[in-house]
């Protein structure tokens, strides 16, 4: 096959076989001297692809025709599949989605973290494969009066009437908010956040008769208040097993919960440890965390409303720190955070991550200094997408 010239071969197509799925959810193939990242592929597919963009020796490609469908390929049920940037795994059986996620974690740990796991990585499937999302951000196109999600790889709004991963009550809200956006001539917000709690919805900014009110959820015997303008996890039915996995059977004197949000892990940790500190940069989330601590009638928690790097810089070190849990955003931890954690010398660490690549990068640094990896477990919090939640647990090799 002749090499691809990125400037002249715009209309050229190639017949390739998808070797496997890579972290990020794309299919791996090779053609014309390029490594191809093929979107919306299934492992084992034989497909005709066109190259959309070339960067160095990598071509970003899309499928023009499926010539021989993989045994794990299914017909995506969503009419917006391929255009909407939301779900990129609907073309796979649910089993294949789970397997791909485990392989992505293993791939990142091996390639980025230089870690080999002798055992299988267990993955807990989602309770619901569809209609699991209790939180959504809808994008608004004020000029065209459209509401939906961004189209794949763009900032154009894909007008969405029905979203198959939304919880039914959120779908009803989507319909009402859509009507409001379609009829309102004044300028609209650029995006609208909506979240579902035990007593109904919170929508931010307030729109179409919905308000940004405080709502709550009971999860694993605890009660959490939050609203649409603060972070709260998407797949509420998966939180109990996620929390159990992260905390294990840990008990002791002192524990820290970094990136604590509204206190999802902080509060159950305070039932097991004599003193707990939660650290959260977002003022509104920290305020909810304090409120949740108060309504749980717990007096052994301190919530610091600071960035983690700042807090670590200014906090005193503890004689004994039994447990440190961290659940950073997708970007993972800055170097200063890893250095600060190492300086605190926690006996055990649980790292909860929504990005296997940054998790692997950060684990490598912790393990290089003083930790051994006890276990890695995956949770399918985001079915129909390539995203996956991972819990890695570590133990200090020596008390410095
Ligand atoms: C993935 S969420 C986890 C929240 C919480 N653990 C939960 O499960 O609900 C990450 C949280 O980190 C907060 N955050 C982001 N960057 C931060 C930083 N540099 N320092 C402290 N908190 C930060 C966000 O506001 C968000 O609440």
Please provide the ordered H/E string of secondary-structure elements.
EEEEEEHEEEEHEEEEHEHEHEHEHEHEE
Detail the poorly predicted runs. none
The percent range for strand residues is 25-35%
Supply Rg: 23 Å
Category from helices, strands and their pairing: alpha/beta
Strand segment tally: 21
Average pLDDT rating: 94
Q: Can you list the strand order of the major beta sheet? A: 7-20-21-19-18-15-16-17
Characterize the main sheet.
8 strands, mixed
Helix-residue proportion? 10-25%
C-alpha termini separation: 58 Å
CA-based shape: globular
What is the overall number of helices?
8
Bound molecules: S-adenosylmethionine
Structure report:
This protein has 400 residues and is α/β, with parallel strands linked by helices. α1 runs parallel beside α8 (356-369) and α6 (308-314) crosses α7 (335-344). The protein is built from eight helices and 21 strands. The protein has an eight-stranded mixed sheet with strand order 7-20-21-19-18-15-16-17, with helices on both faces. Strands 1-5-6-4-3-2 form a six-stranded mixed sheet. It has a five-stranded antiparallel sheet with strand order 10-9-8-11-12, covered by helices on one side. The protein starts with 12 loop residues before the first strand and ends with a strand. The chain has helices spanning 94-111, 168-183, 239-247, 266-270, 283-295, 308-314, 335-344, 356-369; strands spanning 13-17, 20-21, 27-31, 34-38, 46-55, 58-68, 123-124, 135-141, 146-150, 157-159, 191-197, 200-204, 215-219, 222-226, 252-258, 273-279, 301-304, 323-326, 348-353, 371-379, 389-396. The model has no long low-confidence stretch (mean pLDDT 94). The structure holds S-adenosylmethionine. S-adenosylmethionine is lined by residues 231-233, 259-261, 264-265, 279-282, 285, 307-308, 327-329. S-adenosylmethionine binds at residues 231-233, 259-261, 264-265, 279-282, 285, 307-308, 327-329.
């Amino acid at each position: 096959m002749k090499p691809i010239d990125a400037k002249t071969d715009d209309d050229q197509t190639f017949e390739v076989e998808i070797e496997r799925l890579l972290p990020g959810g794309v299919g791996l193939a090779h053609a014309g001297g390029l490594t191809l990242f093929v979107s919306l592929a299934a492992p084992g597919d034989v497909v005709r692809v066109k190259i959309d963009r070339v960067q160095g020796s990598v071509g970003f490609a899309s499928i023009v025709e499926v010539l021989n469908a993989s045994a794990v390929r299914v017909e995506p049920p969503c009419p917006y599949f391929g255009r909407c940037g939301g779900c990129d795994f609907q073309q796979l059986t649910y089993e294949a989605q789970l397997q791909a996620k485990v392989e992505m974690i293993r791939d990142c740990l091996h390639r980025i973290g230089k870690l080999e796991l002798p055992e299988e990585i267990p993955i807990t499937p989602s309770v619901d494969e569809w209609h699991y999302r209790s939180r959504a951000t809808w994008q608004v196109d004020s000029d065209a009066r459209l509401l939906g999600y961004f189209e794949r790889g763009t900032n154009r709004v894909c007008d969405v009437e029905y979203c198959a991963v939304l919880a039914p009550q959120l779908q009803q809200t989507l319909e009402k908010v859509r009507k409001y956006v379609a009829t309102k001539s004044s300028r609209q917000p650029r995006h609208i956040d909506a979240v579902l709690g035990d007593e109904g919805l919170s929508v931010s900014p307030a729109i179409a008769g919905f308000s940004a009110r405080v709502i709550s959820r009971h999860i694993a015997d605890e009660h959490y208040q939050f609203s649409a303008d603060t972070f709260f996890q998407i797949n509420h039915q998966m939180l109990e097993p996620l929390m159990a996995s992260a905390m294990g059977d840990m008990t002791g004197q002192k524990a820290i919960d970094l990136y604590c949000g509204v206190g999802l892990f902080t509060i159950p940790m305070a039932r097991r440890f004599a003193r707990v500190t939660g650290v959260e940069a977002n003022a509104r989330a920290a305020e909810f965390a304090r409120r949740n601590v108060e309504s749980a009638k717990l007096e052994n928690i301190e919530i610091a409303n600071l960035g983690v790097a700042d807090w670590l810089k200014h906090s005193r070190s503890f004689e004994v720190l039994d447990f440190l849990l961290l659940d950073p955003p997708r970007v993972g931890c800055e170097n200063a955070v890893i250095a600060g954690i190492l300086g605190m010398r926690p006996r055990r660490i649980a790292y909860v991550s929504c990005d296997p690549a940054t998790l692997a990068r950060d684990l490598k640094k912790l393990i290089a200094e003083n930790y051994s990896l006890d276990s890695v477990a995956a949770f399918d919090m985001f079915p129909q997408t390539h995203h996956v939640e991972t819990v890695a647990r570590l133990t200090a090799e020596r008390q410095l």
